[in-house]
Task: structure prediction
Amino acid sequence: MATLTRQDALNWLVKYGIIPYWDSIDNKVLFRKAEVKKGSVESVSRDTEEEVWPGLIKLLALKTEADCLLVRRSVEQALKGQGKLIT
Result:
């Protein structure tokens, strides 16, 4: 099996239109759907999302609010570049 990379994790987030955000109450990263145009990204079940979150957090080194912000901006920029993000 191939080793997954940070870029693989970013690509997965972009593919499904999912962005990380920091939960300041619990001091941890969570994920939500980005505001994308209807039908512009593939659908993924909530169970699948929750199953891959630990791996995404590890691959993307999401340990702080600043880490989440950098990744969120990268994903949003990619979605915007593909014309999928609602602006």
